[in-house]
Design brief:
It is built from 19 helices and 15 strands. It has 497 residues and is α/β, with parallel strands linked by helices. The relative contact order is 0.11. The structure holds one RNA strand of 74 nucleotides.
Length: 497
Amino acid sequence: MLKIYNTLSRDKREFIPITPDAVRMYVCGMTVYDYCHLGHARVLVVFDMAYRWLKASGFDVTYVRNITDIDDKIIRRAAENKESIHALTQRFIAAMHEDADALGVQRPDHEPCATQYVPQMLEMIEKLEENGLAYRAADGDVNYAVRKFPGYGNLSGKSLEDLRAGERVDVTDGKNDPLDFVLWKHARDSESDEVKWDSPWGKGRPGWHIECSAMGSEILGKHFDIHGGGADLQFPHHENEIAQSEGAHKCRFVNYWMHNGFVRVDEEKMSKSLGNFFTIREVLKKYDAEVVRFFILRAHYRSPLNYSDMHLDDAKGALTRLYTALKFLPVRPEPSTTLRTKGLVEGERGDASAHATSTNSRQASTGSARTDLMDWNEPHARRFKAAMDDDFNTPEAVAVLFDLANEVNRTQSAEAASQLKALAGVLGLLQRDPQAFLQGGAGEGGFDDTVISAQIEARITAKKSKNFAEADRIRKELLETGIVLEDSAMGTTWRRV
RNA sequence: GGCGCGAUAGCAAAGCGGUUAUGCACCGGAUUGCAAAUCCGUGAAGGGCGGUUCGACUCCGCCUCGCGCCUCCA
């Protein structure tokens, strides 16, 4: 039984989908005007993990992660760069995909761009107007009348009074209440036609919050299961989404709200305004993408995650241990063809759901494709599943991986090795050829493979003639370039530090 | 100021009212020509003060400290 911590109820509860066996999930994605940083990487990886686990648990998942391709910062940046909005956003959407792909993030089922859903947004704003929740301000903007929505503040645990008491809310422009937010921004003369859309309220462009409400309901329906995003979106963004969606549709919007914790640098939130951010691609120059993914998954998604080279080094060492366990062992064949992949996915689904629905008969009929690949009754798998079902407790799940690695090293069991690879695969980890990972490294200079092989041969010759001084010299020389040699019964292998 | 989250061994990070988390580092042993890797073993913890309990790292209260949201932010 999967339990999810729901920000709305502030506790962990059993996950019950609206439609049996199906999950509809929406996650707030990126505003594309710059490269993604590690904070974005965390959202990508965390919800990819949730997506994978839901699928592995037998749910038919529809995952939507939007792209904000129109907003103040985009407009400003495009102007600075003297390029079109479209050129700018396309560039950074491509960059985002590169980064996400590198991190092993599966593409969502839908990746809608805000600019493609303006009609739906207009429709929603009109509904809000009809329902008496939106009004046209003197400056031409259309605003949401927050005080007219009774549940405002429920998600973030704030009351309107508390919010008003805060001195940080600007009392400006045409808002009836300082807490009201913009649904539709009127066009300014200075702005290019590229950011102007026709509307019943004249030319303009959508406010930020409306896009998620409109795209969510358009693609997933008015009421869906899971909505996620970074913890900083809890207020006001998600609070406003609720007000918009429930205000327009007059029905419940989302059942489970999930928020991931921040990435920090020196115990401070990584953010653009603080300037303490590292872009994904920057980090990937120094660390293997899988190390970064492992680093993220090794912490619980709701906890803060401190970034530093030291921690990445630590993660690399840990992942190395896992891959080392798989180094000499044959694991079951990779699903390389599409048919095979399809079979795997379906089997995964059926198998896990059979397990999830405990002891019924589905197991026999659906387990076949996957049974040889994954035995969910195996003790490690059970522990892994229990951990993941407990609000996606990946640190615990990863601990199971290490216990399995120990068993592999101890028993040299191909079954254990296969199980290790299969369970790790559920997290999007450990799917590469171990040698490729161990010998990969950042590839900053040093010897190439042929030189290394030659050196290893030379060392073996030296060892045979008991010339240990020479053998040690070669080993030391390689070590200085970051190559570690490991002798074993199977011969000498090497890896990069 | 309002609201919320957190404090676990040298570092990182989980579960759990009583029984080894896990990874890295450390120490001892096995293995190795020596290493590395691996295995076995030891050591190392729960911010402070109270309370509940036969028993608390785990529940409750208070305090201290840290972080976050209240403005764009993943």
